[in-house]
Amino acid sequence: MKKFYFILIWALIFSVSMQAQTTGKDARMEWWRAARFGMFIHWGVYAQWGGVYHGHQQARGGAEWIMNRSKIPVTEYQERAKSFNPVNYNPDAIVKMAKDAGMKYIIITSKHHDGFALFKSDASKWNVVDATKYGKDLLEPLAEACRKYGMKLGFYYSQAQDWNNPGGSVARKEMREGWPNPDSAKIDAYTAAHKGHWDPLQETKTFDEYIDGVAVPQVKEILTKYGDIAVLWWDTPTNMTDAAALKFQEVLKLQPGIITNDRLKRPNFPGDTKTPEQKIPTQAELDGQDWETCMTMNGSWGYKSWDHNWKSTESLVRNLVDIASKGGNYLLNIGPKEDGSVPAESIERLAQIGNWMKVNGNAIYATKASPLPDLDWGRCTMKRAGKNTQLNLFVFNWPANGKLVVPAIANKAIEARLIATGKKLTVKNENGSIVIVLPSAAPDKIASLIQLTVTGEIANVNIKGTKK
Ligand code: GLC
């Protein structure tokens, strides 16, 4: 009998703590889940090179990898950084641009793999204040502008890879991914023998000395000097250890509400969010976890002077709709130039996305994933409307016969409204579907929104025991 009560009490304690954890996480994630759309900023001294090394266009990868892919010696890279002077950096304009585009949070690379800190750091002289002509902290005014516009701010931090602070790890890349260096064979042999490092200056300290002397202190700095930090975005856990990961987790306690991603150390430090990169998961790939697709507007995260392969506004908006229809977030990137200005192509696309979001944003923010099967004409998000349900139908392909069929739904149709015009549309239930009669032309070529209200709750065909 005693044993029975003992087990019962333990089971109770366990479920209460699990409940506390879940509600704690749900509370922490609430703003993030409602936000759906954020700005990623990849910026640093790699923008000086713009994806070109001594006239050679970098053969592979984002321009933020120029130092590694082109095997630029530490002294040469740091020498050039001395002239870094982004006089056209305007954080107020950047935050306002993000806000006007409908974005709810910003994540900037406080330190990328090249180890260059965009903030004043006492842990390493390789930072914007001590190592460049500009000599001022770049994160402080951005944090201020975020507070001014009510924008959540997060930091990307390359916790493991660091190509300038000795001891940092390096993901090995072959010379051919940079430029046709006559010494390629010798260099590839060297990097193979030196865990990817290509310069002896990178190996004068151990990884643990780097973690304890630079990385952990710097994460402490960015989590204590700039007010509320909403997200810590780790990246590439090359040679990460559990011991190092635990040290970072300890520092995170400085910001109890902070959200982290799944790139601190895999697989045993999953963080809060999954981070598919440059791709949108299919419905089948979703497993109920919070996720965020990060994507570039052209082919590079960092500024690449010769990459003009810009995605259209239409595809960027439809990506956002597709992602929201599957219950995820979209982190869309900009890569400022070395002078701090933002490429015109990015400014133009963000403004156009903003125009679309002004009309349709409420059908993106704080919505749930679509309960319907895949739709050949577009996507759907869902929102409760009292005891009924509102389906936000985004039409990409306007049906030629003027009839929009919403399949596999038994709920009674109450109302359908075309948001662009505000007009009510004729709607009826028919053979287990709902049919909406449309005007001949689509009001918006990118995606026209129809809000359909139906009775009660909708059985979600896509749920596999998820919470969404
Ligand atoms: C990849 C790139 C890295 C970039 C990151 C953003 O890992 O290599 O440079 O910061 O994606 O998701």
Descriptive report:
With 468 residues, the chain is α/β, with parallel strands linked by helices. It is 30% helix and 19% strand. It has helices spanning 2-35, 46-49, 66-69, 74-81, 91-100, 128-131, 139-149, 184-193, 207-222, 242-252, 313-325, 344-360; strands at residues 37-41, 52-53, 56-57, 105-111, 152-157, 231-234, 259-260, 273-274, 290-295, 329-334, 378-385, 388-395, 403-406, 413-418, 423-425, 427-430, 433-437, 448-454. The strands form four sheets. The chain has an eight-stranded parallel β-sheet, sandwiched between helices. Strand 6 (231-234), helix 10 and strand 7 (259-260) form a beta-alpha-beta unit. Helix 5 (91-100) packs parallel to helix 7 (139-149). The chain is globular and about 70 Å long. Residues 62, 64-65, 235-236, 277, 294, 301 line the site of alpha-D-glucopyranose.
Features:
binds alpha-D-glucopyranose, 12 helices, 19% strand, 468 residues, eight-stranded parallel beta sheet, alpha/beta, 30% helix
